Amino acid sequence: MREYKVVVLGSGGVGKSALTVQFVTGTFIEKYDPTIEDFYRKEIEVDSSPSVLEILDTAGTEQFASMRDLYIKNGQGFILVYSLVNQQSFQVAVFNSDKIRPIICEIYTSRIGYL
């Protein structure tokens, strides 16, 4: 069974955990409980083949920012979450996107080099 690693990134309090839990379990969490790091697994179908999503729900606080690069390096897919009513959370999403882009480009460049 294929496994895909997905990393959920964003500022604290924007709803990363709520979106992740809603997707994995179908239930919505209304109470805010700051996350340090949570892993979820969900079986899905990709191209008619059973697969597993390993979803890493990351901390949104600045004190765990040093771990962000490690999360990005290990991820295969990324979900950037921000709040429509919080401009700073959008700026964090742009920052995270800018951090992801060079790492992803490096991975694809090295893979293309082996073709």
TrEMBL record:
Q: Which InterPro entries does the entry mention?
A: P-loop_NTPase (IPR027417), Small_GTP-bd (IPR005225), Small_GTPase (IPR001806), Small_GTPase_Ras-type (IPR020849)
Which Gene Ontology cellular-component terms appear in the entry?
Answer: membrane
Keywords linked to the UniProt accession: GTP-binding, Nucleotide-binding
A Pfam family that this protein carries is: Ras
Q: Which GO terms describe its molecular function?
A: GTP binding; GTPase activity
Q: Which GO terms describe its biological process?
A: signal transduction
| Domain of life of the organism encoding this protein | Eukaryota
Q: Which NCBIfam families match?
A: small_GTP
Recorded protein name is: Ras-related protein rap-2a
